[in-house]
Amino acid sequence: MRLVITGFKGGIGRTSTTLNLAARIAERRSVLVNDQDPQCGALAWAALSDQTPFAVARASSPGLFDVEIVDMPPSMPIKEQMPDADLYLVVTTLDAASYTVFLRTVALLTEQGKPYLVVANRYRPARGEQKRRLAEEPLLAQAIVIRDRAILSSYYERGTTIFALEGKRAQAAQAEFIALSNAIESMLKALKRAAQRQAKKASSLRKQRVSRHTQKKLTPSGRQA
Ligand SMILES: Nc1ncnc2c1ncn2[C@@H]1O[C@H](COP(=O)(O)OP(=O)(O)OP(=O)(O)O)[C@@H](O)[C@H]1O
Ligand SMILES: [Mg+2]
Questions:
Q1: So what's the pLDDT on residue 213?
Q2: Centre of ligand 2 from the C-alpha of residue 92, in Å
Q3: pTM here?
Q4: Which segments show compositional bias classed as Basic residues (predicted)?
Q5: Cα–Cα distances in angstroms (integers) from residue 2 to residues 11, 30, 75, 87, 106, in the given order
Q6: How many A from CA of 7 to the centre of ligand 2?
């Protein structure tokens, strides 16, 4: 499975989402974080760490890991070419400037028919603008919300993730990443079911065409002409 963490704006939380989600998934499966950002936020974090619960590299390793999570740079890819993925996570914060760029990211994915899940990061309910946007914007209706939390800033310099930390604050942050990981799983299952339905439909259409074609070649008595 390949997940691409995107959002064309800087500083919205792609790397935080990548690392903490990777830690959650790594509890059960082998994970590679593929750091495609030239600023190397994930690789720099790994250098601060004694032991990471998942691999971090600047490349893919097809077949070696159960899950690959690609941390993308804060820009539109060259020639608007998004890397392949089973699912794209579009991270945004809820201020107007970030949200405008979020809309561009979503527009490109939609244009290219790529499935995505929205992560509304650094949510502060006390900020009226954020609360209103989250409640009213249809594109945020299914978003997974990660609140603005000190622990989601301090984990980085410790070279750890929130899943290695203890206490109520860590648990509250972990719950949000568990919800994110569950939502990813549900969406991937739904996509798989939809693909199977489509394949079945295509196969039955093919069979119908073949049977019509064969019938045309048959005489009314059913014998070959
Ligand atoms: N939910 C959160 N609560 C508090 N701080 C956060 C949260 N998410 C991210 N941050 C902090 O915001 C800053 C930017 O986050 P991060 O580096 O993950 O974003 P990015 O989109 O990868 O940025 P860049 O464009 O530099 O790659 C970091 O200092 C990070 O610790
Ligand atoms: Mg980053």
A1: 80
A2: 12
A3: 0.92
A4: 198-216
A5: 23, 12, 20, 7, 18
A6: 10
